[in-house]
UniProtKB/TrEMBL annotation:
Domain 2-oxoacid dehydrogenase acyltransferase catalytic: 215-270
Protein species of origin: Acidaminobacter hydrogenoformans DSM 2784
GO MF, one example: acyltransferase activity
One Pfam family it belongs to: 2-oxoacid_dh
Keywords, ordered alphabetically: Acyltransferase, Transferase
Official protein name in the record: 2-oxoacid dehydrogenases acyltransferase (Catalytic domain)
Alphabetical list of InterPro entries matching this protein: 2-oxoacid_DH_actylTfrase (IPR001078), CAT-like_dom_sf (IPR023213)
Length: 282
């Protein structure tokens, strides 16, 4: 049975096909990567855009980079379900937000939907619009409403309902509405730790849903870095990646991270829309 969020990939090598049977759960297949980004040019870019009247911040920049990379490196946008590989038919980035920055402030999750062709300015507009819709104290989005429906049941029924939803997901019977509302059915989960002045972490991947990439962006800090044969102090931020190694081979992952680095070093490359999205193989 087809899924609403992806297309079954059949033309894969036997070695690739067997990996989900060896590593059955996403938590069996975690790999970690750490990246340090010098941010002087990012700060200068954001300042220049603000001077010209365009609102821009680190969240806009990094989400724009990941959207472009997912559009050009489609194997990263795959997911594994019940031993089968699927090419996701959209680009989605999930994120948890606090409706107020207090310990007891209400938390929710949001999901940004993209075609992959967006410029950095279009990404920023989408991000701001979705956050604005969800930041009010009395706001309830689809995720909140779905969770409330589950939690209105007695405890034993909640367990049964969640087990049923997981079974439906494994067998491609999950209602499209639940997939749309679920933050766990997404291309990439992003945590913006810089906003709370916390350093990067390695966040686990969820076995529920389809998320194969988790990215944690840490705070800006000063660090010694090698530059032109000498050591100098620079402002940097660190990124912690956690990836599902079943998605692609090591070379593909390495080239994907190099592409992300290329965009982070020259954000002007993201100012024009992407002409064509790279399609995954079938």
């Amino acid at each position: 049975m087809p899924r609403s969020d992806g297309r079954h990939i059949k033309n894969l090598s036997p070695f690739v096909k067997i990996m989900p049977y060896i590593m059955e759960r996403r938590s069996d297949a975690l790999i970690h990567h750490h990246q340090t980004v010098i941010v002087d040019h990012i700060d200068a870019y954001i300042h220049a855009k603000r001077e010209s009247g365009i609102k821009m911040n680190y969240m806009h920049v990094f989400i724009a980079v990941f959207v472009r990379v997912l559009a050009q490196r489609p194997q990263i946008n795959r997911f594994v379900m019940n031993g089968r590989y699927y090419a996701r038919n959209h680009i989605a980035i999930s994120m948890a937000i606090k409706r107020s920055l207090h310990d007891d402030g209400e938390e929710t999750t949001i999901k940004f939907m993209f075609t992959g062709k967006e410029s950095i300015f279009e990404v920023a507009q989408t991000v701001d619009a979705v956050i604005h819709e969800n930041i009010g104290e009395n706001t309830q989005n689809e995720t909140d409403q779905l969770a409330a429906k589950f939690m209105s049941l007695p405890g034993p029924f909640v367990k049964a309902a969640v087990r049923t939803v997981k079974w439906l997901d494994r067998h491609n019977h999950m209602p499209a509405g639940i997939i749309k509302a679920s933050p766990f059915h997404t291309s990439l989960f992003f945590t913006y730790l810089k906003s709370i002045k916390l350093d990067y972490i390695y966040h686990h991947l969820y076995d529920f849903g389809t998320t194969g990439v988790f990215v944690a962006l840490g705070k800006v800090k000063k660090m010694p870095v090698a530059e032109n044969g000498s050591v100098v102090e620079k402002a940097v931020c660190d990124i912690g990646y956690v990836l599902d190694e079943r998605l692609c081979d090591g070379l593909y992952f390495a080239n994907t991270l190099k592409l992300a680095k290329k965009y982070l070093e020259d954000l002007t490359l993201l100012e024009t829309s992407l002409d064509a999205i790279v399609e995954d193989v079938d």
